[in-house]
From TrEMBL:
CDD domains: GT4_PimA-like. Keywords: Glycosyltransferase, Transferase. The keyword Glycosyltransferase applies. PANTHER family: GLYCOSYLTRANSFERASE. Its EC number is 2.4.-.-. It is an enzyme of class 2 (transferase). SUPFAM superfamilies: UDP-Glycosyltransferase/glycogen phosphorylase (SSF53756). This is Glycosyltransferase. Gene3D superfamilies: Glycogen Phosphorylase B.
Length: 419
């Protein structure tokens, strides 16, 4: 294998674990076994505590570079002149990390960094750019501009938007440039692949590589129920607490089940905006829900091993790490059949799916009645739970293990060096 200097570029503005931060962590873990790849993580950090550029030499030949973002990054990133000056300054302060021999691969995990990546590519020989599409940006509008989200959802997902109009879906600065200027694009689902080809046509250099994880499930899930005797029936939600994640629909379904006489409880692991969280707590105070906040991986593993069902009610999702973790721990799963989730799971085989409904007046919503019924089926049917447990674990082993992801990613790095 050719010597590759790999630069993992992203913007980080939160201490919470995200899909991108989880991906970067596991990718670096998987690359430890490949001596021909030298990894440098370049983080553009938005934090009042980060005011200077730092370059750290880490074990196993790794480097970490932290570059402070301007205190008002949104304004700067939307001003081409000031962004150009910022990028030139940032490159000048860290250019020593680009002097090693071999190929230089800029693996871009935040689309807004494309201008910085292009500056580096123009200055550094044997340099290539790989853009990684972790999510479809316009779908994030659900949490901040629901009206535009619903309009785009109808155009893309209901009507079938024409390619010449697809650029209307651009929702972040320089998004289209991040696709057009990349030497290769990696999507984490076929759903993302279709989005890219709707923008750029069928001849674009794009591949699908599903997210993967190392196996954290080292026991036999002996603590999980295998009958109908234990009460309450324990459900688990993991993820950020925002409208697009659909927690409100889970709470509505559980309220209905409690009204029908079922004894159950929901553990909610994750953080969200305090006002939204408080609204949910007040409106669903009658639902047995324990909001445990952000917890350690060790604590989360215990919930994965002991809860009875994992519930995912997202209205937009790509290759969800929460879904992969639940499958890894053989947790029976109820999930919405949306975007990447619909692609990851086979209904009635390794998960139970719940449809989403769309109307021009109400927008996109989860079918709460169906969600309630799917949960009820698992409460009443231990054999179905056992089947889903076994098949979810098999799905993880066959499709979402770390080695598969790393090998396919290395294949992309090799491919772009041949251009």
């Amino acid at each position: 294998m050719k010597q590759i200097n790999l630069y993992l570029l992203d913007i980080n503005s939160t201490e919470d674990t995200t899909g991108v931060s989880r991906y970067l962590h596991v990718l670096q873990e998987g690359l430890r076994h490949y001596a021909s790849v030298r990894v440098c993580r370049i983080v553009f950090q938005f934090s009042p505590r980060v005011t200077f550029v730092s370059i750290k030499e880490l074990p196993e030949g790794k480097r970490q570079v932290i570059i402070p973002l301007p205190q008002h990054p949104d304004g700067t990133m939307n001003e081409p002149f000031w962004m150009e000056q910022y990028n030139k300054l940032a490159f000048g302060l860290i250019k020593q990390v680009f002097v090693d021999d071999g190929w230089h691969i800029l693996h871009l995990h935040t689309l807004n960094l494309i201008d910085f990546a292009l500056l580096v590519k123009n200055q550094v020989p044997n340099c290539r750019i790989v853009t990684h599409l972790h999510c479809i940006p316009w779908k994030g509008l659900y949490n901040r501009d629901t009206q535009r989200f619903n309009r785009l959802y109808k155009q893309f997902c209901i009507d079938g938007m024409q390619q010449q109009k697809a650029s209307m879906a651009m929702s972040c600065h320089n998004e289209l440039k991040a696709y057009e200027e990349a030497d290769h694009i990696v999507c984490v689902t076929e759903n993302g692949h279709r989005f890219i080809t709707s923008l750029l046509g069928e001849n674009v250099n794009v591949s699908v590589i599903y997210n993967g994880m190392p196996d954290l499930n080292l026991n036999d899930n002996a603590c999980r129920r295998n009958d109908n005797q234990r009460v309450p029936f324990r459900l688990l939600y993991v993820g950020s607490i925002s409208p697009s994640k659909g927690l409100v629909y889970i709470l509505q379904a559980l309220r209905m089940l409690q009204t029908e006489g079922y004894c159950l409880s929901l553990t909610v692991a994750g953080r969200g905006q305090s006002n939204y969280l408080e609204t949910l707590r007040k409106e669903y105070a009658d639902v047995e829900a324990d909001f445990v906040g952000r917890i350690s991986l060790a604590e989360l593993k215990e919930y994965y091993q002991t809860c009875d069902v994992g519930v995912i009610a997202s209205l937009q999702e790509q290759c969800s790490y929460v879904a992969i973790e639940m499958a890894m721990f053989a947790l029976p799963i109820v999930t919405t059949g949306i975007d990447g989730l619909d692609e990851m799971f086979a209904d009635e085989v390794n998960a139970l799916k719940v449809p989403v409904n769309f109307s021009e007046t109400e927008g996109l919503a989860v079918d709460v009645i169906r969600l309630k019924e799917q949960i009820k089926r698992l409460i009443n049917n231990p054999l179905l739970r056992m089947k889903l447990e076994q098949n979810a674990r098999k799905l993880y082993e066959e499709k979402f293990c770390l080695n598969t992801m790393v090998k396919k990613t290395l294949g992309i790095y090799q491919k772009v060096t041949m251009k």
